[in-house]
Design a protein that fits this description.
The complex is a heterodimer of chains A (about 325) and B (about 110).
Chain A lengths: L12 E4 L4 E5 L4 E8 L6 E3 L5 E2 L5 E3 L15 E3 L17 E8 L2 H17 L2 E6 L6 H12 L3 E7 L4 H7 L5 E5 L8 H11 L6 E5 L16 E7 L6 H4 L1 H4 L4 E5 L11 H11 L4 E4 L8 H20 L7
Parallel strand pairs in A: 9-12, 9-13, 10-11, 10-12, 13-14, 14-15
Antiparallel strand pairs in A: 1-2, 1-11, 2-3, 3-4, 3-5, 6-7
Helix pairs in contact in A: 1-4, 1-8
Chain B lengths: L1 H17 L4 E9 L6 H11 L9 E7 L1 E5 L5 E4 L14 E5 L3 E8 L1
Parallel strand pairs in B: 1-2
Antiparallel strand pairs in B: 1-6, 3-4, 3-5
Helix pairs in contact in B: 1-2
The chains are: A alpha/beta (about 325), B alpha+beta (about 110).
């Protein structure tokens, strides 16, 4: 059931905007659009079911040979069109045979992430994937960042349920689209694509993608972003990067948050920096406090740098993406 | 629990390749540094294959051990975690050469 509107459409992903419109994506890719008009005198509930089926067919074909034939190279072809390609040796109706696939499990997500990357590059949009465990301060940092720099920013907000974080961020005046993943513990590239279609960010702007609070799963899913920002707060302990190396090793920037609490805790900043360096030696580290404002100037400078690089790519379309 | 989403991708790809034929066995190659909990994956496999041409198929998983090479000393180091330092020097950078694989290797069809 959708916690935003209470309608029951099964196990779904929800993309919603500020006006009560939202879209459910069923596991089979079916898209259902709902408009909920909340009048004071009651609950007028207009269901506009437009069932547009988005089918992303990826047909890989593999060459199965019964004779021994070892392929050491990656050999997976993906086609967007129907391409039946029976290619093997049948030996009677009951015979089994081995077909080599060598297919990347996340090939589909990776392909959709490439589409997002191209979409961002064509518009000079600087896209950030912001990740952390729940409660590290992602939304609070974004609230302040948007208030202070938000002129040309927008947000794709990912949570399992509710649009509370989206509401907080909308209060800063920037466009926000909430994506509810339902039981899903991370955002995937197709959810971000849906979010972007609802958001329609301006050219040369910054898109913050606030991932679902989780230090494990989001690390595996490329969203097509330029940079990955991982937060951890000093209340979580210095060794967080060592405990969750998969997440920290993909970080371009690590923000150590809530440093205004340092006088009250036994937290060793040097040890925290060493933990980050052990897992992600090339990541930048910035210590910040959203409350006191400490370190925010360095975070803003990093953002400006990324935004300029993304713009430069748009003005020179032949250059490689940032 | 990203294993559920990972398994859905595996099942969709295999069903696609099988084109209605019965699948008896699926072989995956998963690196020990890929961040996948194999027990969770096996559980999800049984659930996700229900009602498909893979239902009841055996799931074989070949684990690929993590291996890194140090940029400084050029030594090969076996890795249990994706930690990017070589024991030779705590600051040295380690390139991960194996262990991050997440592949559907093959399937046995009937």
């Amino acid at each position: 059931m959708c916690a935003t509107c209470g309608c029951s459409e099964g196990n779904v992903v929800t993309v919603g905007d500020a006006k009560g419109h939202h879209t459910h994506i069923l596991p089979d890719g079916t898209v259902i659009e709902h408009t909920h008009a909340h009048a004071d005198e009651g609950h007028s509930h207009s269901h506009d079911h437009s069932h547009s089926h988005s089918h992303d067919h990826s047909h890989s074909h593999s060459h199965g040979h019964d004779h021994s034939h070892s392929h050491d190279h990656d050999h997976s072809h993906s086609h967007d069109h129907e391409h039946p390609h029976p290619h093997g040796h049948e030996h009677g109706a009951d015979a089994t045979r081995t077909e080599l696939l060598e297919a990347k499990v996340l090939a589909k997500n990776d392909r959709l992430a490439e589409r997002n990357r191209g979409w961002f590059a064509g518009r000079g949009v600087f896209a950030l994937n912001v990740m952390s465990s729940p409660g590290s301060g992602k939304t609070t940092l974004l609230e302040r960042t948007l208030r202070e720099l938000g002129a040309t920013s927008s947000v794709v907000e990912g949570d399992q349920e509710t649009d509370r974080d989206a509401e907080r961020l909308r209060a800063t005046g920037v466009p926000v689209v909430q994506v509810n993943t339902g039981t899903g513990c991370h955002l995937e590239a197709d959810m971000v694509w849906m979010g972007l279609q609802a958001l329609q960010p301006e050219s040369d702007s910054v898109v913050f993608i606030e991932n679902v609070g989780n230090l494990v799963c989001p690390a595996l899913f490329d969203l097509g972003e330029h940079r990955r920002v991982v937060l951890f707060s000093i209340t979580e302990g210095e060794d967080k990067p060592l405990k969750y190396p998969h997440m920290f090793r993909v970080a371009d920037l690590v923000l150590i948050t809530k440093v205004d609490l340092l006088p009250h805790l036994d937290f060793d900043l040097d040890e925290a920096r060493r933990s980050v360096a052990a897992v992600a030696p090339e990541a930048r580290i910035v210590e910040v406090s959203t409350k006191s404002g400490a370190g925010l100037e360095a975070w803003y400078a990093w953002l400006r740098e990324g935004r300029e690089a993304a713009r430069a790519v748009r003005s020179k379309p032949t250059a490689a993406t940032v | 629990m990203h294993e559920l989403s990972i398994t859905r991708n595996i099942v969709a790809t295999v069903v696609d390749h099988a084109r209605g034929r019965r699948v008896d066995e699926v072989t995956l190659k998963i690196g020990t540094l890929a961040g996948i909990e194999l027990q969770a994956l096996r559980f999800c496999f049984d659930v996700c294959t229900e009602g498909t041409c893979i239902e009841g198929a055996k799931l074989r998983i070949e684990e690929i051990p993590g291996r890194g090479r140090c940029v400084d000393c050029d030594e090969t180091v076996s890795l249990g975690q994706p930690i990017a330092v070589c024991p030779c020097d705590k600051r040295a950078r380690l390139i991960i050469e194996a262990g991050e694989e997440l592949l559907i290797h093959s399937m046995e069809v009937h």
